[in-house]
Amino acid sequence: MAGDNPAVCSDDTENQREKEEKENNKLSLISWNVDGLDPEEQPERARGLCSYIISHSPDVVFLQELIQPYTRFMKKRLAANYTFIEGGKERYFIGMMLKKSRITLLDSEIVEYSTSRQMRNLLVAQVLFKGQKLCLMTSHFESCKPNAANRMIQLRLVMKRMTKAPDDVTVLFGGDTNLRDAEMVEVGLPGCVCDVWEQLGEPEHCRYTWDTYVNTNLDHRYKSRFRFDRLYLRRAAREGVPQLEPDSMALIGLEKLKCGLYTSDHWGIYCTFSAL
């Protein structure tokens, strides 16, 4: 029988070891506008958010529209495993969570948007992942259709920061951009930066992160679908430096909670990358 063959057992063990090593080299990430500004059922929605983070166990979490009650709640449950970085303290703000066992935080900074009228900024963290230098960025661009000019200014600033990072650093941006496709066309992406969703072949199942046809948390009279939440990648260019390559993308938060609401009015993005 095959189970009695030492060679087969050895092969199975080796295959399992290779599989585990491959998984260990993957970077996982969640980006999510958690809609902390909505007062409806906040405790249950905060518990829902924690449940998704615990079940997916991402290495990196980018969060937008955080409020202090959310961060206090999450720290009580997740601070043992994650380092928290906040982009503000007042009203609502952005933040990052970094898994302590996998990500080493070197430095962080908050970059202000001088033209923002909605308290928006950019949070940047320099980290190490398995010895690889990463620059992580998250932001919440200006909201609402009339604020397109401000959004495009903010996008240009982020792209400038991404392209000017040292060539031995991989840069990952994720956040709620509020971008419409026409605005994206007008600004464009630098040649060294890719849209991760596009890089993965534009999978239809995770095109729309804002979908009021399905998500009923807010009673919108006019229904709409947008790809507001986006991930951008600038690979390290220096020869011999490991590369991050997008592997998979999925939307999370698609299940209603017991209270009848979703965790947020946005779907979250869960994405994995292979370190090559």
TrEMBL record:
Subcellular location: Nucleus, PML body
GO molecular function, one term: 5'-tyrosyl-DNA phosphodiesterase activity
InterPro entries assigned: Endo/exonu/phosph_ase_sf (IPR036691), Endo/exonuclease/phosphatase (IPR005135), TDP2-like (IPR051547)
NADP is among the record's keywords: no
BP terms from Gene Ontology: double-strand break repair
Superkingdom of the organism of origin: Eukaryota
Domain annotation Endonuclease/exonuclease/phosphatase: ranges: 30-266
GO cellular component: cytoplasm; PML body
Record keywords, A-Z: DNA damage, DNA repair, Hydrolase, Magnesium, Metal-binding, Nuclease, Nucleus
Region annotation (Disordered) ranges: 1-25
Compositional bias of kind Basic and acidic residues: 14-25
The keyword DNA damage is annotated on this UniProt entry: yes
Cofactor section: Mg(2+); Mn(2+)
Classification via Pfam families: Exo_endo_phos
Matches recorded under PANTHER family: TRAF AND TNF RECEPTOR-ASSOCIATED PROTEIN (PTHR15822), TYROSYL-DNA PHOSPHODIESTERASE 2 (PTHR15822:SF4)
The protein's name: Tyrosyl-DNA phosphodiesterase 2
Higher taxonomy: Eukaryota, Metazoa, Chordata, Craniata, Vertebrata
Gene from which this protein is expressed: TDP2
